[in-house]
Amino acid sequence: MAEEKGQTTGPDQRAPAPGPGVPALALEAVHAAYGPYRALFGVSLAVPPGGGVALIGPNGAGKSTVARVASGLVVPSAGRVLLDGEDVTGRPAHEIARRGLVHVPEGRAVFSSLSVEENLVLSFAARVGRRGVGAALERAYAAFPVLAERRRQEAGTLSGGQQRVLSLAKVLAVAPRCLVVDELSLGLAPVMVDAVYEGLAAARAAGTAVLVVEQHVERALGVVDDAVVLAQGRVTWRGPADQAQAAVGLALTGGGGDPAESGAEG
Ligand SMILES: Nc1ncnc2c1ncn2[C@@H]1O[C@H](COP(=O)(O)OP(=O)(O)OP(=O)(O)O)[C@@H](O)[C@H]1O
Ligand SMILES: [Mg+2]
User: In CATH, what number is assigned to the domain containing residue 74?
Assistant: First the structure.
């Protein structure tokens, strides 16, 4: 990969604000594979600046793969990824992160042997510098009181739901340009689901563009404008979130095609 000449690689590589109509995040006809296993077949979607899109579909549809493509963890075999109109296809994940795209992956993304507060401090220091950490901590604890109560607890001993809240708090105290969240509410107690969705709504209010990957669609649809339905690596429906329920019902009950064809797991 060619080194760019004459460009510093400081912490803020966000492009200047693009013109109107340019999505914060766009995937164009993306194909992706894991070795011989092909997971995405020409997926296109766009999240406008400050906009919200839910990506929904059954297990194995390729939702997490789309999230990984957006954040640079999976490099598409064809197609393009654009941030604010700029082609970042094939750029390393850390560079895409520096450009303002934050990916909260499935599962637990915390340092388990560090305390809750140490996790937050590490993340905030990297994004706002030491001097911004105090204010960011205050915002995080105000938004997620469960973390304030447990600030000294080792993150690895939190419940799965609390770890998910911590993953979200790590990124939300400083509004990213674009946030990609994967199955945030999976396995969470209802009160935790409320907490993470309040966090997402707050991020949107702060101008963050959000791509929400969810299997449990109702909450996701409530916090976005548009929905994209994925089945077996292909977009099968897209449109306004409030019209998605019917389409989603079909997709989730297997109406999207024959799962045997793509080597679905048991
Ligand atoms: N690391 C990997 N190696 C090989 N195949 C993979 C890998 N990750 C995902 N896959 C396969 O790619 C397909 C899409 O997976 P992906 O995780 O993107 O689906 P998903 O929609 O997020 O599913 P879920 O709802 O279960 O999270 C699946 O068939 C999966 O088995
Ligand atoms: Mg997934």
Answer: 3.40.50.300
Task: Answer yes or no: is the C-beta of 39 below 6 A from any ligand 1 atom.
Answer: yes
**Domain total for the chain?**
1
Closest listed ligand to the CA of 230: 1
Distance 263 CA to ligand 2 centre (A): 16
| SS3 letters across the chain | CCCCCCCCCCCCCCCCCCCCCCCCEEEEEEEEEECCEEEEEEEEEEECCCCEEEEECCCCCCHHHHHHHHHCCCCCCEEEEEECCEECCCCCHHHHHHCCEEEECCCCCCCCCCEHHHHHHHHHHHHHCHHHHHHHHHHHHHHCHHHHHCCCCEHHHCCHHHHHHHHHHHHHCCCCCEEEEECCCCCCCHHHHHHHHHHHHHHHHCCCEEEEEECCHHHHHHCCCEEEEEECCEEEEEEEHHHHHHHHHHHHCCCCCCHHHHCCCC
30 lines ligand 1 (CB under 6 A): no
The reported pTM is: 0.84
Domain that holds residue 41: 25-108+175-262
**Distance in Å, CA 153 to ligand 2 centroid:** 28
Residue 150 forms part of a structural domain? no
Give yes or no for residue 215 CB within 6 A of ligand 1: yes
Q: What is the pLDDT of residues 14-25, one digit of tens each?
A: 555 666 789 999
Asked whether residue 253 is domain-assigned, the answer is yes
Residues 174-197 pLDDT 10s: 788 999 999 988 878 888 888 888
